[in-house]
Amino acid sequence: MRHHLASADRLFMDETTAPVLDPGRGVTKKGYFWAIVSDDRGHGGPGPPIVLFRYAPGRSGAFAEQFLDGCNGRFLQCDAYDGYNRLTEVVRLQGPWTLVYCWSHLRRRFVKLVRNSKSPIAEAVVQQIAQLYAVEATVRGSSPDIRLAARKAHSRPIVAALKPWFGSTLAEDIRYGLNHWQGLTRFLDDGRLELDTNPVENAIRPICLTRKNALFAGHEIGAENWALLASIVATCKLNDINPVAYIAETLEAIIAGHPQSKVDDLMPWRFRKTSSQHQ
Fold first, then answer.
1. Handedness of CA 192, 47, 228, 68 (dihedral sign)
2. Residue 54 in contact with residue 32, Cβ under 8 Å?
3. Is the pTM value of this prediction over 0.85?
């Protein structure tokens, strides 16, 4: 799966906490699961959707750089966590990563303002962002060219009208928008890019639920194994595959001597589709 991620021109990335037992202390320490996603369904791309989780003992941007090493993509869709900034200076043959920021994160800030202060400016911003999402809904699954044309005709005027409002008194949230404006508006120039990081946030959500049920990993190797299994399950689900059936039949194929040279045939997106009754 990592081989296929490496060839993707655009990736999504996010991270979430992973409690791990700290040996000898009887308490847990905070590790992190980093999620890397390739999902081109929004613009009708041919590549299969893939989720790869990696475990790291911390949240430093150095881990993001480490996990993306060998990937040939140009765009990284992520939140505005400053740990990702180092990727814009990484030395690669392809050049540094270009960060594309998330309108959903910006929207949440203004939704919170509406709820807490009833600000009419914040409410207007929320309504304008909703219009951006309405435009996206009309072209989801269409080709990059069709999406780009719709964004130029409909989304660009909305975004242009939004920016002057950021001169209001909503200081902290305005600064967030203005400081990340270039990354927020990159979707207007490339039909392959998404408006938000929902593909990776949706992929990471089951990890959060599992974390509540499992409580913690017994050690760091256990956390790495957890990340590996979560990658398989999440990728199966994105490809409409029953994870239990896939794992069982794939293990049987490996035991039966499936040739390593044909390992690509064992990828989840090559597996037969299962009926909804098995989901």
1. negative
2. no
3. yes
Within 13 Å of residue 91, how many CA atoms lie on the same side as its CB? 0
**Rounded Cα–Cα distance for residues 48 and 36 (Å):** 14
User: Given pLDDT bands bounded at 50, 70 and 90, which one contains residue 40?
Assistant: very high
DSSP state of 155: I
- Asked whether 10 and 74 are in contact (CB, 8 A), the reply is yes
Two structure tokens written together for 146 = 């069709």
**Residue 235 identity (one-letter amino acid):** T
Q: Is 95 left (phi over 0), alpha (psi -120 to 50) or beta?
A: left
- What residue spans of 34-169 are helical by DSSP H? 61-68, 103-117, 120-139, 144-150, 156-165
Residue 234: phi and psi, rounded to 5, are -65, -40
pLDDT digits (tens, 9 = 90+) for 117-141: 888 888 988 999 999 999 999 999 9
How far is residue 167's CA from residue 144's CA, in Å, rounded to a whole number?
33
Query: Using the 8-state DSSP alphabet, how is residue 217 labeled?
Result: B
DSSP for 158-190, please give it. HHHHHHHHTTSS-HHHHHHHHHTHHHHTGGGG-
Is the separation of the CB atoms in 29 and 55 below 8 Å? no
Helix (H) or strand (E) holding 95: none
Whether the CA torsion 243, 30, 97, 201 is positive or negative: it is: positive
